[in-house]
TrEMBL record:
Domain GFO/IDH/MocA-like oxidoreductase: 127-236
Pfam families documented for this protein: GFO_IDH_MocA, GFO_IDH_MocA_C3
Protein name: Dehydrogenase
Residues covered by the Gfo/Idh/MocA-like oxidoreductase N-terminal domain: 4-118
Length: 321
């Protein structure tokens, strides 16, 4: 079977990493790339950098990665759907849910694989966390908390911290719990003088009753990426920056000191940090997309799932208003 013919539009801060992974991915050939801004990171390696999506489609593609600013997602994706090209769009799916619905409809009607780049779902710590929760290691899940904090990234120009970063937490929270958001309440702050928000605190509840807290900002001098899931048997803590997963088991030895027992509720058991195979999440994401095109898997994040996350993000921003 011939290799899949891949193209990419947008070879900037994120697109350059897609280029590297596509080139190293078995079963695919990178045959064309486009970016109106040219090749500022020097990733073309002699390949012509085309000016736009129309020139890219003209190369005869099986699949394409879209890594342009969010405001161009709809126009680009719809042209790819019309051309019959399987597509992976960087998150978020689009600027708003109405636009996202048009994209989802186009790919469904064309019977094409439409994927969205929620790369955190491919993080080794979260993959293992999801597996262990599904196997019942925590028993009933009570609460999910996420922290995603860092300095402002120069690559962002068209959206605030909610659509750029908090969308990761919305997606992974619903995915880990196996349940959509039922309600959200949020507050935002504009502390750095930019047009869009740079801080958000989200409190929510999922349809299955799990409580949620998402803390996200661009004003922290260090990077912090944590997901904490608390259940009836203990807690799982994922450090997605390092790819580490730790289990804190509730103790089984009775606490005979009454005052301590009354205060603490549960006692401390063993703490276990799991040994994990740590592969680059973006590489895993591309494998999932390729396998979906070949009919060998469905582990990619679908456009309909990304649309659900986008709707929650809009509710977060509406609540903050």
């Amino acid at each position: 079977m011939a290799n899949l013919r891949y193209g990419i539009i947008g070879i900037g801060s994120m697109g350059r990493h897609h280029v590297r992974n596509i080139r190293e991915l078995p079963g695919v050939d990178l045959v064309a790339m486009a970016d109106p801004a040219g090749d500022k990171f020097g990733v073309s390696k002699g390949m012509e950098v085309l000016p736009d999506i129309d020139a890219l489609i003209a190369q005869g593609l099986d699949a394409c990665v879209v890594a342009v600013p969010t405001v161009f997602h709809e126009e680009t994706a719809l042209k790819l759907a019309e051309a019959g090209v399987h597509t992976l769009v960087e998150k978020p799916l689009s600027t708003d849910a109405e636009s996202g619905e048009r994209i989802v409809k186009a790919f469904e009607e064309a019977s094409l694989v439409g994927a969205v780049g929620y790369v955190e779902r491919c993080n080794p710590a979260l993959l293992e966390m999801k597996k262990r929760i599904s196997a019942g290691q925590l028993g009933e899940v009570y609460q999910i908390s996420t922290r995603r904090q860092s300095p402002f990234p120069a690559r962002i120009s068209d959206v605030g911290v909610v659509k750029d970063l908090a969308t990761h937490d919305v997606d992974l929270t619903a995915w880990v719990a196996g349940s959509n958001y039922a309600s959200v309440s949020a507050v935002t702050a504009y502390r750095s003088g930019r047009e869009n928000e740079d801080m958000v605190n989200v409190v929510g509840k999922l349809e299955n009753g799990v409580l949620v807290n998402n803390l996200v900002n661009w004003l922290c001098p260090f990077k912090d990426r944590k997901t904490i899931v608390i259940g009836e048997k203990g807690a799982l803590v994922a450090d997605t920056m390092m790819g580490d997963l730790t289990f804190y088991r509730n103790g089984s030895i009775p606490v005979e000191w009454t005052q301590v027992a009354n205060f603490r509720g549960v006692s401390e058991g063993e703490m276990t940090r799991y040994e994990l195979t740590k592969r680059e999440p973006l590489r895993v994401e591309h494998e999932h997309f390729r396998d979906a095109i070949l009919g060998k898997g469905n582990e990619h994040v679908s456009m309909s799932e990304a649309l659900q996350a986008l709707k929650v993000v809009e509710e977060i921003l509406e609540s903050a208003k």
